[in-house]
Write a structure and sequence with these properties.
2 copies of one chain form a homodimer. By secondary structure, chain A is of the alpha/beta class. Chain A has 12 helices and 11 strands. Helix content of chain A is 38%, strand content 18%. In chain A, strands 6-7-8-9-11-10 form a 6-stranded mixed beta sheet, with helices on both faces. In chain A, a hairpin with a 3-residue loop joins β10 (288-289) and β11 (293-299). In chain A, α2 (26-41) packs parallel to α4 (129-139) and α5 (146-159) packs antiparallel against α6 (170-181).
């Protein structure tokens, strides 16, 4: 989609609807808020929608309270920007109502994007959807003030794990540099989005680490928590995000696994890997994901049976893997 | 110091000695290796020194094995570059021998630098000494290949906590962008310097979290470990770095404290704070540091007595602090 077309589309429409995906992350929320603010400054009537709950750690973002969770029927016709969604399913059943509201502009950076829009701005070389929004704002001479910069910085820092992940490019860093010049405080943002959590999270981590086990070659490290423990602390499942890395990060460990046992006798399994394709392993159990990060859900009468099955599958993948050195830990 | 002077100094000297501080971090090691490689490429005879042990996580840096720990007497006269040292004490008693080896060029970014060199290149607006070395390399048209870029990236990423700390500037990010263009892999480096640790570290964290306590207002969070526990796992004291943040990062907590009890009946105390000046608190016990990060060592017959004294001092500082809201945790 050319800037000329965006320009025309914006000129012809007063109403703008911005949507992003369920279980939103910093890129989804930051991109939506930044794009909304830039369009409002252009005189547009903007409403922003996200199905489900916005995690508390994003509460400091300007405009976050205006995000609505339910997309109403019979809205005045306008343009619908769908941000950071690989497909319309991530809009959590809002697709039909959304398509009625106007032409869809799909803005995304996922390689798997389904090009579901009437217009598609998809760039998988961008580290985050926020990086694409930044480009649109610059190329169309739109407002880039401190608040919009803050939202875009949150988007890019979130999706690159503070510039640690492999999607970090020279361009991500250059854009971040411009956003800092606009007055963004990187240490405040990092504290809010990476380094602040409720007390319950530390209790969960403590209890999870107490369950840490490794296989005999120290190539697999796993931990587990039961839903009852979360309830005891009033904790949310999202607080366990990242726990799996404590096992994976151990020197010599190839695969980290985290088991979350629910009261419904299901075990949700998270995998993180250094070399082995854990997406394939998760697929064996009806799950999926990427080679280095994947997940699945297993039903089993006993929690331990689910764990044993999974660990066995990981062992088989590890031993099959040619040339694997099962390094002993320090 | 002007580039003209550096140029002349380099032209007049064949032997170059590069030194950095004891207990070296990524900035110390990365800067020294980058500067050494750039000068070697210029035809200089370079030796690099660092008193004490180089942490294992930097073993992947090109040239790290050539770093020597003992500065010999009677070296041929040359130039001595002292990097990332606020004062000569950080060279661990090598000062006298170092001064005999030639004129000293002090390159540093600490605001407290003592200007101890015959020449001083001190810039406290730089996020890392590596950022100053980058500038010297560019301004003097020296080599910036992939290996030198890698060392400089480690320097800047280390000292900014992967661009999370408040010393991160637009320039830090712009320099990092150039280094990525030279072929540096940010995810590999981040894994090596931030996200990989021996098994013993996870055991220590598990045991430390098991001791987590908070005061009645949930404003202070503390944990402790005894030297005997480290020995049981064959762990090094450096592995406890960052544990104090697990307490400090809890929502509502103002001060995190970590107590390390040695067999000599000493308690080493680390403080991290969101608002209270913990440098002042540490100073009450003969320690020091910054307002947000400080430390001290206390001798006491009983470990619990040392802890009680410190917690009491933090409480007094907190309650004295005007307008403090002792927010209850989630």
């Amino acid at each position: 989609m050319k800037n000329r077309e965006i320009h025309d589309l914006l000129n012809r429409n007063e109403h703008i609807y911005i949507l992003t995906h369920t279980l939103p992350d910093g890129d989804a929320i930051g991109s939506a808020l930044a794009w909304g603010a830039a369009l409002r400054h252009r005189g547009k009537k903007v409403r922003i929608f996200c199905p489900g709950v916005i995690p508390n750690k994003y509460a400091f973002l300007p405009g976050v309270l205006e995000i609505e969770d339910d997309f109403p029927a019979s809205l005045p016709k306008g343009i619908v920007f769908v941000l950071d969604c690989g497909d319309m399913e991530r809009l959590d059943c809002m697709e039909e109502k959304v398509r009625e509201a106007g032409k869809i502009v799909n803005i995304d950076h996922h390689a798997t994007n389904a090009y579901f829009g009437d217009y598609n701005i998809v760039d998988n070389s961008a580290s985050a959807t926020g990086e694409i929004i930044y480009r649109l704002i610059r190329e169309n001479n739109m407002l880039l003030d401190r608040e919009i910069s803050l939202c875009l910085y949150v988007a890019i820092a979130s999706d690159t794990g503070s510039f640690k992940y492999s999607n970090t490019t020279p361009r991500s860093l250059q854009v971040a540099a411009v956003l800092l010049k606009k007055g963004v405080d990187p240490s405040l943002i990092s504290r809010k989005i990476f380094d602040e959590y409720p007390l319950s999270t530390v209790f969960l981590l403590r209890d999870a680490l107490a369950t840490l086990q490794l296989d005999e070659t120290h190539s697999i490290a796993w931990m587990s928590l039961h839903e009852d423990v979360l309830d005891a602390y009033g904790a949310k499942a999202e607080e366990m995000e990242g726990f799996v890395n404590f096992g994976k990060n151990i020197s010599g460990v190839e695969v980290g696994i985290f088991f979350y046992h629910t009261r419904k006798k299901e075990t949700k399994v998270g995998f993180r890997s250094k070399t082995v394709d854990v997406g394939e392993i998760a697929a064996q159990f009806g799950g999926g994901g990427h080679p280095r990060a994947a997940g699945c859900t297993i039903g089993a009468r006993e929690d331990t049976i689910a764990m044993e099955k999974v660990i066995q599958a990981v062992k088989e993948a590890l031993y099959k893997k040619e040339g694997l050195k099962t390094v002993k830990c320090d």
